[in-house]
Amino acid sequence: MSSDISDRSDRVPDGTSRDEAPQFVLPLVVRIEKAAPPARTDALETAARAVLVMLSDERSVGEGEWARAMRDWQDARIRKVVRRARGAEWRRASALPGLTVLGAGPTTETASTAEVRVFPPVPLDGWPKELAKLQVSGTELDDAEPPPAPDPALPVLWIAPGLDMSAGKAMAQAGHGAQLAWWELSETERKAWREAGFPLAVRTPDAGRWRELTASGLPVVRDAGFTEIAPGSCTVVADHPALRS
């Protein structure tokens, strides 16, 4: 499912409009086998960590092999697209350059641990054929039971209550939230989070708590509204302990 962060400066460093700059997208593929799909919260948390793993990978920074694509992507609209794969589709996607991140959910007879593969950014109209043919729709995932309250010491990505988003759309939004938190952290704070393995939780607060969070000064994702929800909708608050006032 496609998604875009809209609440950034309208200009890139050279003064070009972000909409006029070449557009790139960060592809994420979630493995969804028919017999045992992952739980929704596990998939959302794994997608968020996948974005962080890509942002922090040595190949994504400096003179790394993915660094140019990462810079071009972040200089335009920050787009992410989540697609689904299973069986041979997943094996073909896994053969492409990228990173696979495993979730923390247990494997049961009816649910598997989430697996998300993230790839270096690609041009909006230049997807590899192995990914272009994958379906965007069909990422309807559920939790067998409500997730527990998050550990207060953990970073939490709070998903807006009342917004009807598919799992794929919510995964992209969680990735946006993780990215906003990453941008706000110092190098020391980033290093500590990375070395800890990017622990985080994704939860949905009640309406009253959501109002408090959106007024707290923490980073807020406002979606560009390309799919599913209205433009400018507040979708995620990135609540990292280092950013709490």
Keywords:
single chain; 10 strands; 30% helix; 19% strand; peptidyl-tRNA hydrolase; EC 3.1.1.29; PTH2
Describe the structure.
The chain contains 7 helices and 10 strands. With 245 residues, it is of the alpha+beta class. Strands 1, 2, 3, 4, 5 and 6 form a 6-stranded mixed β-sheet that branches. A 4-stranded mixed β-sheet has the order 8-7-10-9, sandwiched between helices. Helix 1 runs parallel beside helix 5. It holds the Pfam family PTH2. This is peptidyl-tRNA hydrolase. It is an enzyme of class 3 (hydrolase).
In a few lines, what is going on in this structure?
With 245 residues, the chain is an alpha+beta fold. It has helices at 40-56, 67-75, 87-94, 129-132, 167-184, 187-195, 207-214; strands at 2-5, 24-31, 78-85, 99-102, 115-118, 122-123, 156-159, 201-203, 220-222, 234-239.
Layout of secondary structure:
Blueprint: E1 2-5, E2 24-31, H1 40-56, H2 67-75, E3 78-85, H3 87-94, E4 99-102, E5 115-118, E6 122-123, H4 129-132, E7 156-159, H5 167-184, H6 187-195, E8 201-203, H7 207-214, E9 220-222, E10 234-239
Parallel strand pairs: 2-3, 7-8
Antiparallel strand pairs: 1-3, 2-5, 2-6, 4-5, 7-10, 9-10
EC number: 3.1.1.29
Catalytic activity: an N-acyl-L-alpha-aminoacyl-tRNA + H2O = an N-acyl-L-amino acid + a tRNA + H(+)
Protein name: peptidyl-tRNA hydrolase
What's the pLDDT, averaged over the residues?
Answer: 90
Count the strands? 10
Indicate the radius of gyration in whole angstroms: 17 Å
Q: Into which percentage range does the β-strand content fall?
A: 15-25%
The helical percent reads 25-40%
Order of helices and strands: EEHHEHEEEHEHHEHEE
Overall shape: globular
End-to-end span in angstroms? 33 Å
Oligomer: single chain
Number of domains: 1
Helix count equals 7
Structural class: alpha+beta
Q: Strand count, sense and closure of the main sheet?
A: 6 strands, mixed
Q: Low-confidence parts lasting 5 or more residues at pLDDT below 50?
A: 7-13
Keywords: Hydrolase
Protein name: peptidyl-tRNA hydrolase
Catalytic activity: an N-acyl-L-alpha-aminoacyl-tRNA + H2O = an N-acyl-L-amino acid + a tRNA + H(+)
EC number: 3.1.1.29
